[in-house]
Amino acid sequence: DHVLKNGDRVEIYRPLKVSPKEARRLRAENARSAKNAQRDKNA
Questions:
Q1: Residues 4 and 10: beta-carbon distance below 8 Å
Q2: What is the 3 state secondary structure string of the chain?
Q3: Residue 25 and residue 33: Cα distance in Å, rounded?
Q4: CA dihedral 22, 23, 25, 27 (to 10 degrees)
Q5: How far apart are CA 20 and CA 39, in angstroms?
Q6: Per-residue confidence (pLDDT) for residue 30, from 0 to 100
Q7: How do residues 1-43 score in pLDDT, each as one tens digit?
């Protein structure tokens, strides 16, 4: 164990709610939907 001193850096991690792969897939899907909605609006 280590006693923290003034100026020590502490990193706190938490569990991910969504895996990075799934998050990227969801962002791409949302971007695709938004692009299609904008295209339909302008048509």
A1: yes
A2: CCCCCCCCCCCCCCCCCCCHHHHHHHHHHHHHHHHHHHHHHHC
A3: 12
A4: 160
A5: 28
A6: 95
A7: 889 999 999 999 999 999 999 999 999 999 999 988 888 888 7
